[in-house]
Amino acid sequence: MGRVISVLVFGAVGVAILVSLGIWQMQRLAWKEAVLADIEARIAAAPVAMPDAPDPEAERYLPVRATGVIGEATVRILVSQRRIGAGYRLISALETAEGRRVLVDRGVLPVAEALPPVPEGAVTVTGNLHWPVERDGFTPENDLAENIWFARDVAALADHLGTEPLLLIAREISPSEPSVTPLPVTIENIPNDHLNYAITWFLLALVWLGMTLFLLWRIRQRPD
């Protein structure tokens, strides 16, 4: 009898812990979905003028519109697009009519294509401010000799191109560049795995319950 009680207690505690973890992940899912909905609304809002001193947290994803001339120097950043393949993001300096120099992410170019010339004259860029964090311990060092970078490091790009540490990711450039496809800010790459985690915890709870019932059955089958 004592062994049955021990198994019941051990099984009940294990199931309770696993179910509570699943419920916690469901609560996290609701929180993350609210955060993503807020970010999506901020991305799609009406564009405003470039702020004088934007805050990387408060004004992340802020939609802006700026007019200026794109500088000749262009950095290529290697990216991979789902169902499309490898390409280069093109990062250049945009000098506005007010004399500011900021970074502009013009879009993506297939790796097989030659670097196109920058647009002539003034262009109007509509997009979103962003400070992406793409470099970690596994990111290769940039190949400056071949002009191939592996992350949008805003501070390093600003130093390299002589701009403010401010990145405007284009949603639209007018006049447009025929060979360059804008790759605007979206919520697509923001991770949201809480539902998968919740399902995993609930399935583990079922497995734990099944193992507990099986062990109880084995105990009852043994002769006294």
TrEMBL record:
One of its GO terms (cellular component) is plasma membrane. It is a multi-pass membrane protein. It comes from the Bacteria. The chain crosses the membrane at residues 7-26, 198-217. Pfam families: SURF1 (PF02104). Its main location: membrane. Keywords: Cell membrane, Membrane, Transmembrane, Transmembrane helix. Coiled coil: none annotated. It is found in: Cell membrane; Membrane. Belongs to the SURF1 family. This is SURF1-like protein. It comes from Roseicyclus mahoneyensis.
